[in-house]
Amino acid sequence: MGYEFWGRINQLARGAIPFLLSVLLMLIFISSTGIPGFVKVAPSMTIISVYFWSISRPELLPLYLVFGLGLIEDALIGEPLGIQAIVLVLIAYTVSTQRHFFTFAPFGYIFSSFILAAAAGLGMNWLVNSLYYWEFWDITPLLVKAAMTVIFYPVVHWLLHKVDKNIVS
Amino acid sequence: MRRRSGTFARVATPLKSWFQRFALTLMILTAGALLIVQRINPDGIYFVRVTIVDTFSPVLTAMTTPVTAGRELINNVRSYGSLRAEVLELREKLRFTERWEQVARTLEGENRRLWSQLHVTQDLRTDFVSARVIRDRGSSYVQSVLINAGREDGVKRGQAVLSSYSLAGRILDAGQGSSRVLLVTDINSRIPCILERSGVPAIAVGDNQNGVRLIRLTPDEIRDISLGDRVVTSGAGGVFPAGFEIGIVQETVGDQVIVVSNINWDRLEFATVVNFEHPDLLPGSAFETLQ
Question: Cβ separation of A38 and B141 shorter than 8 Å?
Fold first, then answer.
């Protein structure tokens, strides 16, 4: 019983890593950093994380957890609940259904697809926010945020890949 | 037992496959419904927002602690370098403040005498709660911050929040141990105010950047405005106490009056929540007795 029980706990803990790590990365980048203006252009860690796990282990980050992640981010940022949830769910669904293209693909292919996914996700966030408030917001911070998200991707991908290989597996 | 688990599987398996098949549609519909509910009634799912923020605020507070400590350390090191100059400046300020203290005491006494002669009642009861900012100002679309004080500290929705002796915003959501402050710079913020010099009333509206615009002013009133005029809360509506500084007039362009606050929005570390209660609205007040 003991061995089976601890084996099950171990399995559960490993299975929870993608979600918990996504929450942690999000919290690091939305907490008070003290860098003036950083929050507005901070990279979207949830888009990076959801994209990565939807390729490598979609079964550990199912759509309902992605939806929850989006709701948490919306609530902490102060945006209307549901906007980031829609964006993340659509990214997760699209990427996981096209997963066979990414399985043995080189990093350059994954990275260039990420640029498209990040642009689409952030663009959709801007559009839904604009429709919600009926106000077309300045697009400059969005472009900087998109650039920051793309710049941060290789580092976070490397980190998540290490976690996936050494801990989750 | 085996039969029961078989029955459960017969019901659960198609339900699970149905859920997996329609998961995307269900979630998009749920998110859409949430957005519509919030659009119609911003307080519709208030408790969900507050619960999520309350759950994560201890983690955010813990993450902010080293940042604040680092910032304090840098400030300390910097201030050691200019210690002598600062001491001289503080001595000068002290002399200046002592002179003002005498003037203030005289005016306070005079004011009290005049109030008693006119039988004016004290118009507010105020106390303060200080809190740390645990989430910096807003995103591209929302100008708000999170603070680590909530209902258990006496914070309530609608209360005014100050920083650097100026109005920073008001409490939008008050959780158990954390609260969200809607800043005066948010596009949805509307604060009744007056131009201190002329006494002209207006409404201060955020521009979602670093400033505030004044609306509800006639062209004549706008012409009468001078650059540097102080804009303070009017106290109209009984939501905020009167006299809190919102900012000073920076420029007027056509019918646009731009006001800037003396708050450094990018370095908002601490905030003070003002617990203000109008005597007429207090339980057991003369107002309530008359009702």
Answer: no
The CATH-assigned architecture of domain A2-168 is Orthogonal Bundle (1.10)
CB of A133 less than 8 A from some CB of B: yes
Chain A residues with CB inside 8 Å of B60's CB?
27, 30-32, 76
Write the DSSP symbol of residue B216.
S
Which pair of structure tokens corresponds to residue A60? 């550990």
Residues of B in contact with A39 (CB under 8 A): 135-139
Burial B228-245 (b: 16+ CB within 10 A, else e): ebebbbbbeeeebbeebb
Judged on CB neighbours under 10 Å (0-12, 13-18, 19+), B209 is: exposed
Residue B242 lies in a domain: yes
The token duo for A81 is 């609940």
What's the rounded Cα separation, in Å, for the pair A67 and A92? 10
In a domain, B70, yes or no: no
Assign B208 to helix, strand or coil. Answer: coil
Is the complex ipTM higher than 0.85? yes
pLDDT (tens digit, 9 = 90+) per residue, A112-169?
A: 999 999 999 999 999 999 999 888 888 888 999 999 999 999 999 999 999 998 877 6
Domain with B111 in it: 83-120
